[in-house]
Amino acid sequence: MKIVYTDNNATTRVADEVIQEMLPYFGEFYGNPSSMHTFGDQTAKKIKEARQRVADLIHADPEEVVFTSCGTESDNSAVYSAINACPDKKHIITSNVEHPAINNLFKLLKRTRGYRVTFVPVDKKGLLNLDVLYKSLSDDTALVSLMWANNETGVLFPIAEIAQKIREKGILFHTDAVQAAGKVPIDVRTSGVDMLSLSGHKIHAPKGVGVLYIRKGVKFSPFFIGGHQEKGRRGGTENSVSIIGLGKAAELAKAHLPVMDTQVRALRDYLQNQLLEKIPSCSVNGDLEKRLPNTLSIGFDAVEGESILLMLDREGICASSGSACTSGSLDPSHVLMAMEVPFKSAHGSIRFSLSHYNTREEMDHIIAALVPVIERLRAMSPFWKDGKVV
What 8-state DSSP symbol labels residue 261? Predict the structure, then answer.
């Protein structure tokens, strides 16, 4: 069965060019980049090249790029560094739609260390309530951490505007840009963020490698304590092969930004419009304009998201649920609940997230499969009768 993969916000295939870049460093060039000999220096030079490529993607200085194991480590490192830099400040701010790497960490800091946490709400379109955010800033605020783009809905926050307001207050600002990288342009120089997180497997690099951007001049305390690696900012022998792969992926991601904004956006819009036209009682979750070009979160009334996914899976279609059912919970996702998406729609929400590898033919396959899937599920649903929700 041909696989139609539309779950790219969860993870991406490793690009062929990335694999080719990595292969020699699995075997032929296996030296430790910290070694003094020429053999190890060959690996060190490739890591330096990768650091430059990542820096080019986000318009940073290479010295501001720190390699980590994943986006979660990058997020945690940024948060702990910020609160360590401001030990007398006991207030931190985030949104109520963040990734668990931030959401759960902030809840932990509140529960175990007594931090006062402001979870800034979003409106029904998933847009951040900026009035609440700015009114929450105080002399006691150590850190503001907000995602650049939401992983479920694709909704974008106005990071540059927010960063300017926060810097005027002298407060550290971190953004989780894991979903934004490679999909929309990122310029850390003009956005004004202090720290920014990336993850390799979201941009066609392997799993197990990430990035934390740290602006020059920002006081940073390492999360991993060890050797001199990453200029003392992240101990442990570098994951050389994956870092080299990430560097190539970053180069490709920068080159593909125009494709994301045109070709991929057009495919997403085609899929969206066809589903809205052919399936009654369905709606898009999130703002229609201020969102990633590849992401479609769409809710189908009176059906269960996990049932949709299971039936699509039989057709070789990979997507994800807008609810947290796949993690063992029957509750809709915290993102959709924060947006006050009606329960009947939130439970039937699924997410399609595309890449430049997707095609128009694949979108047609999804449409042809999904229309009868929804019809069959609604025929069995106690909440659907005579062509409408009851």
Answer: I
Q: Is 383 domain-assigned?
A: no
> What range defines the domain where residue 85 resides?
16-253
Q: What are the structure tokens assigned to 50, written together?
A: 């990768």
Closest by CA position to 254, among listed 196, 197, 181: 181
Q: Look at residue 332 and tell me whether its pLDDT is greater than 80.
A: no
Q: Among candidates 174, 158, 184, 183, which has minimal Cα distance to 211?
A: 174
- Number of domains making up the chain: 2
- Residue 214 pairs in a beta bridge with 195
The DSSP secondary-structure symbol of 27 reads: T
Which active-site residues does the annotation give? 325
Distance CA 277, CA 312 (A): 19
How open is the CA angle 239-199-101, to the nearest 5 degrees?
110
Among residues 206, 209, 151, the alpha carbon closest in space to that of 178 is found at 151
In this structure, is residue 304 part of a structural domain?
A: yes
pTM: 0.96
Beginning with the edge strand found earlier in the chain, give each strand of the sheet holding 210-214 in spatial order: 65-68, 210-214, 195-199, 172-176, 141-147, 91-95, 116-120
pLDDT (tens digit per residue) in 345-389: 899 999 999 999 999 999 999 999 999 999 999 999 999 998 899
Residue 375, in any domain of the structure: no
Under DSSP, is residue 44 helix (H, G, I), strand (E, B) or coil?
Answer: helix
Which amino acid, 306?
A: E
Rg (CA), the chain: 22
CA distance 164 to 343: 36
How do strand 172-176 and strand 320-321 relate by DSSP bridges? unpaired
Three-state DSSP class for 89?
coil
Residue 156 sits at φ, ψ, to 5 deg, of: -95, 135
**CA–CA gap between residue 208 and residue 201 (Å, rounded):** 8
Map tokens 């997403």 to a residue. 268
